[in-house]
Amino acid sequence: MDSESPSPGPNQGTQLDPKARKLSLRTPSWLFPFKGIFYFFSHPFLYPLLKARLIPCAVLSFIVLSILFTFTYLPQVAFLAIFHGPLAWVNGAFLVLGEGAIIIQGLFEAFFVDEALVDIFDAVLVNEGLTDLLAPSREIHADGRTPVQRLGKPKKSAVYSPLSIRLIIEFVLFLPFNLIPIFGTPLFLVLTGHRAGPLHHWRYYKLLELPKKERMAEIRRRRLQYTWFGTAALTLQLVPLLSMLFLLTTAAGSALWAARLEKQKRAFTGRPVPHVRVPADIIDASTDDPPSYEDNIEQ
Fold first, then answer.
1. Percent of the chain with pLDDT over 70
2. What is the dihedral of CA 174, 213, 105, 114, to 10 degrees?
3. 8 A C-beta contact, residue 95 and residue 76
4. Rg for the chain (alpha carbons), in Å?
5. What is the model's pLDDT at position 265?
6. Is the pLDDT of residue 281 over 80?
7. What distance in Å separates the CA atoms of residue 8 and residue 268, rounded to the nearest whole number?
8. Is 52 helix (H, G, I), strand (E, B) or coil?
9. Which residues, at least 6 apart from 86, have a Cβ–Cβ distance to it below 8 Å?
10. Can you tell me the distance from the alpha carbon of 2 to that of 28, in angstroms, rounded to the nearest whole number?
11. How many CB atoms lie within 10 A of CB 276?
12. Which residues have a Cβ under 8 Å from the Cβ of 131 and sit 6 or more positions away?
C-alpha cells in the first residue's frame, strides 16, 4: 500500500495534535507529479523560472521529436507489427516518445534545466515554511518579497538529480519490453520509473546531509512509493512538446512531497510544524531569477 507514514519517533504512543493527524493522512505518491502542475501554475512566483526556458524547451522538444518521428517511427512500427498487429501504430508512438523523452531530458538537464529544477525545488520548500532545512546549504535573503527572490547562492553543490548512467543503460535494456502486446509499454514505464523515482529526491536527501547508507535505507523504505512517483513523472514526460514543462512541474511536486515528509517527521517527533509562508494569490509574478550559480561547487 502506498503510504507516507514516517518512522516512529520518540513521541510514539503519545496523543498527536490535529496538525500531526492531518499530516499523517496518506497521499498516493503518484499524485505528486500532478499536484506539482497545479502548484506551479497557481503560484505565480514560480513563473520567472519558466519564462527564460520556455522557448528553448519547446524548440528542442520539437526538433528532437521531429527527427525521431521522421526517421525512426515507421521502421519501429514495421518491426512491432510482427508482434502487435494493428496496435503497432500506438505502441510505436509510445516507443518513439520514450526515446525522445530520454534524449530531451538528457540534453536539457545538461545545458539548460538543472539549475531551474533546483530553484523550483528550493522555492517550494521556502514557501512551505522549510527555510531552516535549506539555510545550511544556501544563502537566504530575508528581505525577498517572494520565495524565489529569497533564494541566494548555494553554499554547497546544488544538483536536483544527478545524471545516472545506470538509468540510461536500463532504459535501453528495457526498451524491448515494448514488444510485448498491450502490457509491454506500461511494464516499461514502471520498470524505468522504479529507477528514476528516487532521483527526484536527491536534492532533499542532500539537504538532510544523510550518509549514503541512511539515504539508501530511506529509499528502500519508500521503494514502492518512489516507483509510482517515477512512473507518473515519466508518463508526463511522454507528452509531446510538453515533456520539459512537466519536468519543471514535477520538481514542484517532488518538493511538495519532500515538504510533506519533513512536516510529518517533525509532527511525529514533537517539533514545530511550519506553515506556508506566502499566500499564492498575492505573489507578484514579475520577479527576478535567483542569482546564477555553478553546480560543481565543492562540497
1. 78
2. 180
3. yes
4. 20
5. 86
6. no
7. 7
8. helix
9. none
10. 6
11. 11
12. 125, 140, 150, 277
